[in-house]
């Protein structure tokens, strides 16, 4: 972004981010210098860029604390219904720029840094991503926090403060290497530890009967230390809280050793307990039934529910009646949303608290629990569904296992009453799976223990009703809902694409960041040559900027006039990065066959992390890198085709990629991607989509019309039919010579001359074990790509489609999603209320 030189020029520039006021700029500079001196204990001679980042972060943070305290005070006084979002993942990315934007002080801070001779972008680049998530599910939680604060909901995020977030991906000799993400190394200016609110969490032990009921005794205790993170709403002076728990050893941990005289060993062993919050499990859409992961899930849930119940009892409402009665109103004052089954132990834990600690009757406790909890399903992939071995629960959480068994006993009674003699249905619906090792199906626990169950896109919610949860839908149809995912337009347009933001503001004003549906007004300029030229200019600037980053970080030169064709998301077979790879190889073979033919130049970029234990996903990365190596070094290919594997895809890289993309690849097998949110980020930034009728792609196509998107391939019904009649990849291999050439090259070592057998396993999967039907969609995909190339040659047409994409993306604001959750699940009404700003800060205007 070019910086206007004079005040006059600054004033003329139309910007959603407002104009810096001189007095406020002075105040920012003063506070920045104060922090550099008193907080960082540095002067300008010895300060590093990181010191400047911390000084600015602290300055910005100071602007938030008054709002934060006052928002929480207001919640205490008004005592509205609280919404608790429980998630094992929050993929937050960076906070500095987002906080400045939401507080409305970005231009003041930029100007202050400029006057101090600093480039604010260099400071921002010093911030580590808070990578406490794997992919879409974790980023959704982060977008939801932003929307809940912006809508003025009394909402709290609860999760784990992992000491190590998602690993950093290094590509070495074309292979993924994982490095631990030590994101807290230099400290975190955005969190506030609250040691005074530490809570005990119990594990192991046994259950005894007492006159007062069941008691869980002889447990091992780990403490949960809360760290509060501010979540500022956009321009409304609300600041909500994300509370993340960190594991702390009790002082008397392993006292046995201490008594044995092994003091050193006793101190060393304190680490064992603190391992609970050490590291994020790096699996996306995969259940790895590890004991430590179960402990993480319960640790988060137990500490959080303790907090929720304490806050309810301390509220004016909760404390006004006697204990037994006042829990009747718990579901009117508390909503708990479970982000997938990961926090589903909240259901037996709330039952345990109400029965064993508050001494409520089972039926009363069950009514309260089901009316409080709601469950969001995020996947239908069987390998991702959590099914904990009974033996593991029995040892770690014996009382919860008892409660789950009793929930199941009563549930099975109800099922038997409705379907007498239908034992197969009872077996299918049981919370306890008895075939093979005995396991608890946590999705079943979540459905039975919730009043609402939702999928995350229309097609996904239908599949849940028809397929995965069919029996449960037939039994309790009223529970099932859809809540199509969304993304926050603050981070995914205003923050990451200032050029496009300003263009939009020139046309429709500056309300769109909180009323994204207003973008539809841009449709009338879709064919306007002037607007098209401006949109094209901004896209070109963004592409140049990404090209510079690629050259600086990877030493790769790309042709910025080529089409930027991008697929970024976790590497997974169902997402079909391999299908993209087959297209690349096909293009390569076509260029080699006829080098003089007309060709639309492309730079194809693929990025994403593979779970460290997912062998095939790592092989796919290796193949992409190997193909890139051949394509990029072939002089015949030249500028026509470049292939880049984007290393270490994460939120901060996504912010640079989305604004620069021409084409978004959303090519999962129909019926496998629950929603996708990457697809929405691309669309909002004017990229066109090539995609299957899967997840939210279906609704994107509905919003923009089929003329503005490249839809190809089998529908869910066609995939089902193919599965039924039997898929034989050789049918396609034998019929299509281009497929045959691609697979023979992969098979025969064309891309791995030093190890010809390297990719045999991939060819084997494609021909014999492919669960995602790549070859069945190949031809349709290649055809659609040909249409993409042809359309790109007609820039007026392409830009018209691009503008129509932007104009149609209003539905995919997470504000819309959160409004629906609020009204249809949580029973709260968004206020969009603006609180008064504290008087003494630059943002008080
Ligand atoms: C949005 C986002 C995702 C989700 O992408 P999908 O294409 O929906 O899988 C994953 N990772 C990051 C860093 C994201 O920002």
UniProtKB/TrEMBL annotation:
Keywords: Carbohydrate metabolism, Glycogen metabolism, Glycosyltransferase, Phosphoprotein, Pyridoxal phosphate, Transferase. One of its GO terms (molecular function) is glycogen phosphorylase activity. It catalyses: [(1->4)-alpha-D-glucosyl](n) + phosphate = [(1->4)-alpha-D-glucosyl](n-1) + alpha-D-glucose 1-phosphate. The modification N6-(pyridoxal phosphate)lysine is found at residue 681. One of its GO terms (biological process) is glycogen catabolic process. Its EC number is 2.4.1.1. One of its GO terms (cellular component) is cytoplasm. InterPro entries: Glycg_phsphrylas, Glyco_trans_35, Pyridoxal_P_attach_site. The keyword Chloroplast does not apply. Pfam families: Phosphorylase. It is an enzyme of class 2 (transferase). Its cofactor is pyridoxal 5'-phosphate. Belongs to the glycogen phosphorylase family. This is Alpha-1,4 glucan phosphorylase. It comes from Ceratitis capitata (Mediterranean fruit fly). The lineage of its organism: Eukaryota, Metazoa, Ecdysozoa, Arthropoda, Hexapoda. The gene is PYG.
């Amino acid at each position: 972004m070019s910086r206007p030189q004079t005040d006059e020029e600054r004033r003329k520039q139309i910007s959603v981010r407002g104009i810096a006021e001189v007095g406020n700029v002075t105040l920012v500079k003063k506070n920045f210098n104060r922090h550099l001196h008193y907080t960082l204990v540095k002067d300008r001679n010895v300060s590093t860029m990181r010191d400047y980042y911390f000084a600015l972060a602290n300055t910005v943070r100071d602007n938030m604390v008054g709002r934060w305290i006052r928002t929480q005070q207001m919640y205490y006084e008004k005592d509205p219904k609280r919404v608790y979002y429980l998630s094992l993942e929050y993929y937050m990315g960076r906070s500095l720029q987002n906080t400045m934007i939401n507080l409305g002080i970005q231009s003041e801070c930029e100007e202050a840094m400029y006057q101090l001779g600093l480039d604010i972008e260099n400071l921002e680049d010093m911030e580590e991503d808070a990578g406490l998530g794997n992919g879409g599910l974790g980023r959704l939680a982060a977008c939801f926090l932003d929307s809940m604060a912006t809508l003025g909901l009394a909402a709290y995020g609860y999760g784990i403060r992992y000491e190590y977030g998602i690993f950093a991906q290094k590509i070495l000799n074309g292979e993924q290497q994982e490095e631990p993400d030590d994101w807290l190394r230099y400290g975190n200016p955005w969190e506030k530890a609250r040691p005074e609110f530490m809570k005990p969490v119990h594990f192991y032990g046994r259950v005894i009967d007492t006159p007062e009921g069941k008691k869980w005794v002889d447990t091992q205790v780990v403490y949960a230390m809360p760290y509060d993170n501010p979540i500022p709403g956009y321009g409304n002076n609300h600041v909500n809280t994300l509370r993340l728990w960190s594991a702390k050893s009790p002082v008397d941990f392993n006292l046995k050793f201490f008594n044995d005289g092994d003091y050193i060993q006793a101190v060393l062993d304190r680490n064992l307990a603190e391992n609970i919050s050490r590291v994020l499990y790096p699996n996306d859409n995969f259940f790895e039934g590890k004991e430590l992961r179960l402990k993480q899930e319960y640790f988060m849930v137990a500490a959080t529910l303790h907090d929720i119940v304490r806050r309810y009892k301390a509220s004016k409402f909760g404390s006004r009646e006697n204990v037994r009665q006042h829990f009747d109103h718990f579901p009117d004052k508390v909503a708990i949303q479970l982000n997938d089954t990961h926090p589903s132990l909240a259901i037996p834990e709330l039952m345990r608290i109400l029965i064993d600690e508050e001494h409520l009757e089972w039926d009363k406790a069950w009514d309260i629990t089901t009316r409080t909890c709601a469950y969001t399903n995020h996947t239908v992939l069987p390998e991702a569904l959590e099914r904990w071995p009974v033996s593991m629960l029995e040892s770690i959480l014996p009382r919860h296992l008892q409660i789950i068994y009793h929930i199941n006993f009563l549930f099975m009674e109800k099922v038997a009453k409705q379907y007498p003699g239908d034992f197969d249905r009872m077996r299918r619906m049981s919370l306890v799976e008895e075939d093979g090792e005995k396991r608890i199906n946590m999705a079943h626990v979540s459905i039975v223990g919730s009043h609402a169950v939702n999928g995350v896109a229309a097609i996904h919610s239908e599949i849940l009703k028809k397929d995965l949860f069919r029996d449960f839908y037939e039994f309790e149809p009223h529970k099932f809902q859809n809540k199509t995912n969304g993304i926050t337009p603050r981070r995914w347009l205003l923050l990451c694409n200032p050029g496009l933001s300003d263009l939009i503001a020139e046309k429709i004003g500056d309300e769109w960041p909180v009323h994204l549906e207003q973008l539809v007004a841009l449709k009338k300029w879709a064919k306007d040559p002037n607007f098209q030229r401006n949109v094209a200019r901004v896209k070109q600037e963004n592409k140049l900027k990404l090209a510079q980053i690629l050259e600086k970080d990877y030493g790769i030169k790309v042709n910025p006039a080529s089409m930027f064709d991008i697929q970024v998301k976790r590497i997974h077979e169902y997402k079909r990065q391999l299908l993209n790879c087959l297209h690349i190889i096909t293009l390569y073979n076509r260029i080699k066959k006829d080098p003089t033919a007309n060709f639309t130049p492309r730079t194809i970029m693929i990025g994403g992390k593979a779970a460290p234990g997912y062998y095939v996903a790592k092989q796919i990365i290796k193949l992409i890198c190997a193909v890139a190596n051949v394509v990029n070094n072939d002089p015949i290919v030249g500028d026509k085709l470049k292939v880049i594997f984007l290393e270490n895809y994460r939120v901060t890289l996504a912010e640079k990629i989305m604004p620069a993309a021409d084409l978004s690849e959303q090519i999962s097998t129909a019926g496998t991607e629950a929603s996708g949110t990457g697809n929405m980020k691309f669309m909002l930034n004017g990229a066109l989509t090539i995609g299957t009728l899967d997840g939210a792609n279906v609704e994107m196509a509905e919003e923009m019309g089929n003329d503005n998107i490249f839809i190809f391939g089998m529908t869910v019904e066609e995939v089902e039919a193919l599965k039924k009649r039997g898929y034989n990849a050789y049918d396609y291999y034998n019929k299509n010579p281009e497929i045959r050439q691609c697979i023979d090259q992969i098979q025969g070592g064309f891309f791995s001359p030093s190890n010809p057998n390297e990719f045999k396993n991939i060819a084997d999967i494609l021909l014999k074990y492919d669960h995602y039907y790549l070859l069945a969609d190949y031809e349709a995909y290649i055809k659609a790509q040909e249409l993409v190339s042809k359309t790109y040659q007609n820039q007026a047409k392409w830009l018209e489609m691009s503008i129509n994409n932007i104009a149609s993306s209003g539905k995919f604001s997470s504000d819309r999603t959160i409004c629906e959750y609020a009204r249809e699940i949580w029973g709260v009404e968004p206020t969009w209320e603006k609180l008064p700003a504290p008087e003494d800060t630059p943002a008080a205007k």
